[in-house]
Design a protein that fits this description.
- The chain has 87 residues and is α+β, with helices and mostly antiparallel strands.
- Helix content is 32%, strand content 45%.
- A hairpin with a 3-residue loop joins strand 3 and strand 4.
- The longest helix is centred in the last third of the chain and has 18 residues.
- The termini are far apart.
């Protein structure tokens, strides 16, 4: 895979991010990985502090594909879903 893009999304769970990726045509192949027809995504998550008393889950997704334009479209579709969820 020639193109690799890493993006972080706050306010969604890793479980929900995995579901979004499968809804976008991927298949879960491991606890933290989804593979689509021409792309792969690996997820990780951590709790981050926002200000003195608020914490959020931040999910980081590493997207990989050979076709950069198709990958950008996938990331945009994923980001739309993630924003509606609260991130």
């Amino acid at each position: 895979m020639d193109t690799r893009i890493e993006r972080s999304f706050r306010g969604i769970s890793e479980r929900l991010a995995l579901r979004y990726l499968t809804n976008l045509g991927g298949e879960r192949v491991a606890d933290d990985r989804v593979e689509g027809p021409d792309w792969k995504a690996r997820l990780s998550s951590e709790t981050v502090e926002i200000g003195p008393s608020l914490t959020l889950t931040e999910v980081t997704v590493v997207f990989e594909a050979d076709d950069a334009a198709a990958l950008e479209a996938l990331i945009e579709d994923f980001a739309q879903k993630a924003m509606r969820a609260g991130g």
